[in-house]
Write a structure and sequence with these properties.
This protein has 362 residues and is of the alpha+beta class. Helices cover 22% and strands 35% of the residues. The chain has a 6-stranded mixed β-sheet, sandwiched between helices. A 5-stranded antiparallel β-sheet has the order 13-12-11-14-20, with no helix packed on it. Strands 15-19-16-17-18 form a 5-stranded antiparallel β-sheet, with no helix packed on it. It starts with 9 loop residues before the first strand and ends with a strand. This is ABC transporter ATP-binding protein. One of its GO terms (cellular component) is ATP-binding cassette (ABC) transporter complex.
Length: 362
């Protein structure tokens, strides 16, 4: 027997939503598989929350279709109310019920025999490491503990899909990383399909199996974090994940000539203006030897000289800004912090070819 293609737990097809003259969501199509965390990542205002709210059923799309396990919950004709969509929600203001203790908060959405409810509550509190606080009230808990209870509460009714909108943004940095990892473990153990919204690339990379990068109401790129980071679709996609350096070129014969040597531009027509884009951590630096740099190599091309204008020690690495001899522009490098050059020092920069992106300029 041929193995069947697994059915997406959640599917959106061409979702659209306008608010007056403003198109908040402009044709979003996306699938989320069981046991996977898919992340809608994009800058503030790009339409992430509106998309999530339409899936939850608290916002109506102007058009498009949403299916859960192959069952349509919303299209032009049909409308399933939020409580019948088997969707769990966890938002930034995840307020627990202040007058209920932890056990009753988690049991809130559960129905059925008392014994079964109690077992489910205990199972979840165990899973989120809150067994010791079963009778505590929310005001007696820290932010991180409240977050764990909120997760248990959202998961208690075994939702088919979990929607999370910036759920960790209220937590301080250290705690946030810990809670993110724990949350991920719990979600994986429950096998829930997760759609997580965030504007933070680091959070998306840490949590997601799949990232859908959103801009102006559309998904501009989708893929595993590794692929999105290492093969961005355009300059804006590259720049969303880190600082980038950009140098300009013009294509002649599928190549562009720059002060760092030649870059391949396969399939790009002659005369096209291109941006050569690379991240600061992919700049290699070398010492100046009486006005000369290292010899060119195939992987790193031609070295170009710059003068250190700024150097900051950041702990694990140093951030160094160079003013380039060739046109006075500023390029940034991140180098291991064993090295902190002084301002005014000449150094030679090389760019690793396999880490560069060449995009036609818009
Ligand atoms: N209820 C609303 N009424 C009017 N405009 C809205 C409403 N909800 C969202 N918007 C607008 O839609 C756009 C997308 O908002 P949102 O989905 O909240 O973005 P994100 O979550 O990515 O920050 C924004 O321009 C926002 O101002
Ligand atoms: Mg939002």
């Amino acid at each position: 027997m041929k193995p069947e293609t697994p059915m997406p737990r959640l599917e959106m097809a061409d979702l659209r939503r306008r608010f007056g003259a403003r198109t908040a969501v402009d044709g979003v199509s996306l699938s989320v598989m069981a046991g996977q965390v898919t992340c809608l990542l994009g800058p503030s205002g790009c339409g992430k929350s509106t998309t999530l709210r339409m899936i939850a059923g608290v916002e109506r799309p102007d058009s498009g279709r949403i299916t859960v396990d192959g069952r349509t919950v919303c299209d032009g004709a049909l409308w399933v109310p939020p409580e019948d969509r088997s969707i769990g929600l966890m938002f930034q203001d995840f307020a627990l019920f202040p007058h209920l203790d932890v056990a009753r908060n988690v049991a809130f959405g559960l129905t059925g025999p008392k014994r079964a409810v109690q077992e489910r509550v205990e199972e979840l509190l165990e899973r989120v490491g809150m067994t010791g606080h079963i009778s505590a009230y929310p005001h007696e808990l820290s932010g991180g503990e409240q977050q764990r209870v909120a997760l248990a509460r959202a998961l208690a009714p075994r939702p088919r899909i979990m929607l999370m909108d910036e759920p960790f943004s209220g937590l301080d940095d250290r705690l946030r990383d810990e809670i993110r990892d724990e949350t991920l473990d719990v979600l994986k153990a429950e096998g829930t399909a997760v759609l997580l919204v965030t504007h933070e690339p680091a959070e998306a990379m840490r949590m997601a199996d799949e990232i859908a990068l959103m801009r102006d109401g559309r998904i501009v790129q989708q893929g595993a974090p590794y692929n999105i980071y290492n093969a961005p679709a355009d300059l804006a996609a590259a720049a969303f994940f880190s600082d980038v350096n950009v140098i300009e070129g013009v294509v002649r014969g599928a190549l562009t000539e720059t002060p760092f040597g030649q870059f391949l531009a396969p399939g790009v027509p002659d005369g096209t203006a291109v941006d050569i884009v690379f991240r600061p951590q992919h700049v290699k630096i070398d010492f100046d030897r009486g006005g000369r740099g290292p010899n060119p190599t195939a992987a790193e091309g031609t070295p170009a000289r710059g003068i250190v204008r700024r150097a900051r020690f950041m702990g694990a690495e140093s951030l160094v800004e160079f003013q380039m001899d060739f046109d006075g522009s500023i390029l940034k490098a991140r180098v291991p912090s064993v090295f902190l050059p002084r301002v005014g020092m000449p150094l030679w920069l090389m760019v690793r070819r396999e880490r560069c992106f060449v995009f036609p300029r818009h």
